[in-house]
Design goal:
Elements: H1 3-15, H2 27-47, H3 55-58, H4 61-64, H5 70-77, E1 85-87, H6 94-103, E2 109-114, H7 123-132, E3 139-149, E4 169-177, E5 197-202, H8 204-207, E6 217-221, H9 229-237, E7 244-248, E8 270-271, E9 277-281, H10 286-294, E10 295-296, E11 302-306, H11 314-318, H12 322-325, E12 331-335, H13 341-350, E13 356-359, H14 365-371, E14 385-389, H15 396-407, E15 414-418, H16 429-435, E16 437-441
Parallel strand pairs: 1-2, 2-3, 3-4, 4-5, 5-6, 6-7, 7-9, 8-10, 9-11, 11-12, 12-13, 13-14, 14-15, 15-16
Length: 451
């Protein structure tokens, strides 16, 4: 076949489907559909365990759609956002990653640097990292998840003096650091003026802290060693306007004593005047009362307590100041609790103005306590919205809570049920729909995922 014939055949195949309806879609709309599809594919991939050889990993969504038609291919290639997610643990080759960087054009990048579970990064992974690092000026999101920061092939330490003009989100998780030098405890010392969300896990809290001045959301996660209380205070006090704080793990050194009254924060509170949301997840329990007593935040309106055990709040309730600590607290989430009915009653009294309540377990003591009301004891009389999981088709407890509060003149306005089932299959669906605004939400989960 001559070159002219090949060219003619190629043009013929390229135009063969132009009469179909999909070609009538504007490029802008099709591009937007692709972005939504990629987002959904990412969510489904995160929810589904896949092997390393799965089709989704070998052929990502953005690549798959380029194989559908010439119109799809041209549109996808000219949609920079589709190519802006870079992951060193993916099966993509260096050449493919380079193609992504080119197709992303000037689009800001979401970058994940990790070693694929290996303690020491492989040569292949390091080559990918070397390929991506020069584009730091385009990063808007950076996730670093490694086991060891080696001295021979450092990764995080490369960011020591870096300037990241577009970086808005950073998450760093590292379990071990070789040959640590105290002067290297900070990264992005060149500046990260747009950085607002930071998650530090493991030894990143000690060794690799980015600029925190403009941060509004801060996650501090489990680490294997203790963090001096004064260092913790320095970290959470560094932002000018911290609004959301999550502390998971018992890593704060409370060596002043074993009683909660001796916990470092109780006698010298940390002033966080802009903090609106606080999440606590502990193991041995002292951190709950310690932080609640140790933080002064007059505008706090949302509190999440995870893995709460019976004695964890005893120190807080025993303090004469507990009723005045958070005067406008309205939203309370209790995830995976193990507490008694008496502890629930203490919570009703200690946080009297709750309007929104979330609990992860439909069989929890809190849910039952909410259904056991009387004229002289209405838990959270201004409660407006209740969110709770239900198991299978068992919505009886939820219906009891709604009915009891209606009877006593403190009705719920909205009930969100955590279930994978269609709501219309629930036995009390019709009655609930008549008496509350009924909604379905994903299951309220435990764990300490980002806020």
């Amino acid at each position: 076949m001559t070159s002219l014939a090949v060219c003619t055949d190629w043009k013929s195949r390229r135009n063969m489907n132009q009469g179909t309806r999909v070609y009538s879609l504007p490029v802008e709309l099709l591009s937007y559909i692709f972005i939504l599809g990629q987002t959904q594919a990412t969510i489904e991939s995160d929810l589904t365990e896949q092997s390393d050889e799965s089709e989704a990993q070998l052929c990502p969504f953005e690549v798959l759609i380029t194989h559908v038609s010439f119109y799809f291919r041209d549109t996808a290639i000219e949609t920079p956002m589709l190519w802006s997610n870079i992951d060193t643990a993916s099966a993509l080759s260096n050449e493919a990653l380079q193609t992504y960087l080119v197709r992303a054009k000037r689009c800001e990048l979401s970058v994940s640097l990790n070693t694929g579970g290996a303690r020491v990064p492989s040569v292949v992974v390091m080559k990918k990292i070397d390929l991506i690092l020069p584009h730091l000026h385009r990063y808007q999101r950076l996730v670093v998840d490694i086991i060891v920061e080696p001295s021979s092939q450092p990764l995080i330490r490369r960011f020591k003096d870096a300037f990241a003009p577009t970086l808005r989100y950073i998450s760093i998780s590292v379990e071990d650091v070789e040959n640590y030098i105290p002067s290297e405890s900070k990264i992005f010392q060149g500046g990260a003026p747009l950085l607002t969300t930071v998650r530090l896990q493991g030894l990143a809290l000690l060794f690799f802290r980015p600029p925190l001045e403009n941060v509004t959301t801060l996650h501090l996660d489990h680490m294997s060693t203790q963090l001096r209380y004064i260092t913790f205070v320095d970290i959470v006090s560094a932002p000018f306007s911290l609004q959301n704080l999550s502390v998971c793990g018992d890593f704060i050194d409370s060596s002043n004593g074993s009683d909660i009254q001796d916990w470092p924060g109780a006698g010298s509170p940390i002033n966080l005047p802009h903090l609106r949301s606080l999440r606590i997840c502990g193991i041995n329990g002292k951190i709950y009362s310690g932080l609640l007593l140790g933080i002064t935040s007059p505008v706090l309106d949302s509190l999440v307590l995870m893995d709460l055990k019976e004695p964890d709040l005893e120190g807080f309730w025993a303090s004469p100041m507990h009723t005045a600590k958070f005067p406008i607290l309205q939203s309370l989430s209790i995830i995976d609790p193990e507490i008694s009915r008496d502890a629930c009653l203490e919570m009703f009294r200690g946080f009297p103005y709750i309007t929104s309540m979330t609990t992860s377990d439909c069989t929890s003591t809190i849910a039952y306590a909410l259904s056991e009301v009387s004229l002289d004891n209405v838990p959270w009389p201004v409660l407006d919205t209740l969110t709770m999981n239900i198991e299978h088709y068992d919505d009886e407890l939820a219906a009891d809570i709604v009915e009891q509060r209606m009877t006593l003149g403190c009705p719920l306005r909205k009930l969100n049920l955590g279930t994978t089932l269609p709501l219309f299959l629930l036995p009390n669906y019709a009655w609930l729909q008549e008496n509350v605004v009924l909604g379905r939400v994903p299951h309220v989960m435990d764990g300490c995922s980002p806020m």
